[in-house]
Design a protein that fits this description.
The chain is α/β, with parallel strands linked by helices and 281 residues long. The protein is built from 9 helices and 14 strands. Helix content is 33%, strand content 18%. Helix 6 packs across helix 7. It starts with a strand and ends in an 8-residue tail after the last strand. Bound molecules: glutamic acid. The site of glutamic acid has 7 residues, from loops.
């Protein structure tokens, strides 16, 4: 049976783009007789604002979206991420890194999907693990596992190319686990069979596929949908003045009508769905 999820990070109010993402995940589950889950990704260090969760729940109910079971909180699952990281450490695939963002910026000679590409400064060095972040030795992991493939149901079969990220951080200095590790462990723990999310996270799936192989986790199918963008192509964000769902709800707008409009791809003036489903790199 298909299982999808909406997995917001409570570090800002939800906006139309989140509503669209939640509707896509919800409707795919409902159309195929499956389950739709809500996961709160609340381990993003100082950026996480737990007080936003009640707002998110009110927003989703206002949109008319109901999830199956109770919401899952990443903050309640830290032991799972540690256990997964310990397994990777035992395989000799993680190494400690004391580099700051500034160090990485100064040392990088190339850009990766998430910014300056970490050039492997601390790999093969005796770095103090105390207070370090832990990075995945991606080349070593890839050579251990061999070629991997994954399927996005909108863009088709992909060959995994996790090397493009360099040695990603899996355990952060400022947070219990990285997005990549936590999301991969959780999607498996929650039995997610169809990972639906915006196309801005398309490339992350290369890393997630590698982590699944290393940790022996089941492999879902992915569905990376287009993003709602403003004229000019910028992603919707509160800081650029798009009203949040909570603003709309409190102003007395109908959530059901908004859901119907988003389902029908009737977006407010100046907002459109990006065609930008990134395909193979
Ligand atoms: N928490 C992520 C976000 O809010 C989404 C993660 C995912 O769907 O994999 O952007």
């Amino acid at each position: 049976m298909i299982r999808t999820r909406f997995a917001p990070s409570p570090n800002g109010s939800l906006h139309l783009g989140h509503a669209y993402a939640a509707i896509v995940a919800h409707d795919l589950a409902r159309a195929r007789g499956g389950k739709f889950l809500l996961r709160i990704e609340d381990i993003d260090g100082a950026r996480s604002q737990p007080e936003l969760v009640a707002e998110y729940i009110a927003d989703l109910k206002w949109l008319g979206l109901r999830w199956d079971g109770t919401a899952v909180y990443q903050s309640a699952r830290l032991a799972r991420y540690t256990e997964a990281a310990e397994r990777l450490k035992a395989m000799g695939l993680l190494y400690p890194c004391q580099c700051t963002r500034t160090d990485v910026l100064a040392a990088a000679t190339e850009a990766g999907p998430d910014g300056p590409l970490y050039p492997g400064t601390c790999r093969n060095h005796n770095v103090d693990p105390q207070g370090a972040s832990w990075r995945l030795d991606v080349a070593k992991a890839v050579s251990l596992i061999g070629p991997l493939h994954w399927v996005d149901e909108l863009t088709g079969a992909q060959t995994a190319t996790p090397e493009m990220f360099g040695d990603v951080v899996l355990l952060r200095k400022d947070a219990p686990a990285s997005y990549h590790l936590a999301a991969t462990v959780d999607d498996a723990a929650d039995g997610i069979t169809l990972v639906t999310r915006g196309s801005d996270l398309f490339l992350s799936s290369h890393i997630h596929r590698l982590l699944q192989a290393l940790l022996g986790l089941p492999v879902p199918t992915w569905h990376h949908h287009g993003l709602l963008v403003e004229a000019g192509g910028a992603k919707l964000a509160k800081r650029r003045g798009s009203p949040s769902l909570a603003d709309r709800r409190r102003a007395g707008e109908s959530g059901a009508a908004l859901t119907d409009a988003l389902r029908a791809h009737h977006f407010p003036a100046g907002i459109s769905l990006s065609a930008g489903l990134e395909s193979k790199p």
